[in-house]
């Protein structure tokens, strides 16, 4: 369902939700009984590997714009395996006034289920204002690989305003809860030496695996601008900054290969 706010409301935006549900197919694979696109978010089943079903998010129109309220919901039920990526970067663009755009991602992963959430970067274009939240609920035996990348401004331009929040619960208990803000209106110092140090690409890779309870990776630096941190739970978080999207991806991909 997609709705456009009527004229005179002060909100010139689109409201839309895309949904996917993954379940075991009984033959060692995964099927998708729910695959619903919404507004500018088109979900397409693409070629998976092994037990994984794969879904690619395709942008059907320019979004998110100011005033848009977009959401993606993914549920991976017990024993299923789902990989989600995107066909291109998401670009947050200025709207015609009104409130900031919102983009909410809600992920649920059941017992012995596996989710790989690997979208392309989010680009915060000059003049845009986006609030993005990602909330993940994991069963105790669930596995997760989640990548987030933010590019602050297109080539040669300043960043828009971007606030992101990532909340992860495992077996109902908090595993990670962090909020980041960049661009005009963000708390002072966001671009200083203690945060980005002038870099314009930033990202993180979160890996949750029950095996880490017994053999947690050691916290360590990954080059000059990245760090791998073992969390207080069966998880590791890789945080990195870089001068551009290509260098950022190389760091995060290198870390991901370490975990398979």
Q: Determine the N-to-C terminus distance.
A: 38 Å
Radius of gyration: 18 Å
The counted number of beta strands is 19
Q: How would you sum up the major sheet? A: 11 strands, mixed
Total tally of structural domains? 1
Q: Give the helix tally.
A: 1
Account of the protein in words:
By secondary structure, this protein is mainly beta. The protein has one domain. The chain is 6% helix and 50% strand. It has one helix spanning 245-259, and strands at residues 2-4, 14-24, 30-36, 41-46, 53-59, 69-76, 81-86, 90-92, 101-109, 114-118, 122-124, 129-138, 143-152, 161-170, 173-182, 201-208, 220-221, 226-230, 235-242. Strands 4, 5, 7, 8, 10, 11, 13, 16, 17, 18 and 19 form an eleven-stranded mixed sheet that branches. β4 (41-46) and β5 (53-59) form a beta hairpin. It starts with a strand and ends with a helix. Residues 1-11 have low confidence and may be disordered.
Short description:
It is found in: Cytoplasm. This protein has 260 residues and is mainly beta.
Main traits of this protein?
260 residues, mainly beta, eleven-stranded mixed β-sheet, 1 helix, globular, disordered N terminus
């Amino acid at each position: 369902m997609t709705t456009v706010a009527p004229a005179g409301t002060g909100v010139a935006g689109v409201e839309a939700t895309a949904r996917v549900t993954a379940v075991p197919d009984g033959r060692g694979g995964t099927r998708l009984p729910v695959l619903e696109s919404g507004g500018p978010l088109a979900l397409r089943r693409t070629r998976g590997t092994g037990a994984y079903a794969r879904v690619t998010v395709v942008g059907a129109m320019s979004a998110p714009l100011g005033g848009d309220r977009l959401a993606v919901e993914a549920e991976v039920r017990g024993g299923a395996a789902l990989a989600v990526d995107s066909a291109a970067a998401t670009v947050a663009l200025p709207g015609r006034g009104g409130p900031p755009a919102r983009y909410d991602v809600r992920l649920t992963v059941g017992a012995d289920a596996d989710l790989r959430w690997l979208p392309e970067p989010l680009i915060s274009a000059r003049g845009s204002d986006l609030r993005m939240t990602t909330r993940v609920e994991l069963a105790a035996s669930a596995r997760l690989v989640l990548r987030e990348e933010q590019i602050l401004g297109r080539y040669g331009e300043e960043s828009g305003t971007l606030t992101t929040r990532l909340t992860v619960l495992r077996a109902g208990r908090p595993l990670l809860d962090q909020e980041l803000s960049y661009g005009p209106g963000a708390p002072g110092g966001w671009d200083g030496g203690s945060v980005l140090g002038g870099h314009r690409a930033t990202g993180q890779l979160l890996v949750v695996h029950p095996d880490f309870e017994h053999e947690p990776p050691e916290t360590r630096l990954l080059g000059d601008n990245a760090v791998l941190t073992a969390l207080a739970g069966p998880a590791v978080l890789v945080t990195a900054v870089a001068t551009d999207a290509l260098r950022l991806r190389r760091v995060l991909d290198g870390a991901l290969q370490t975990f398979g």
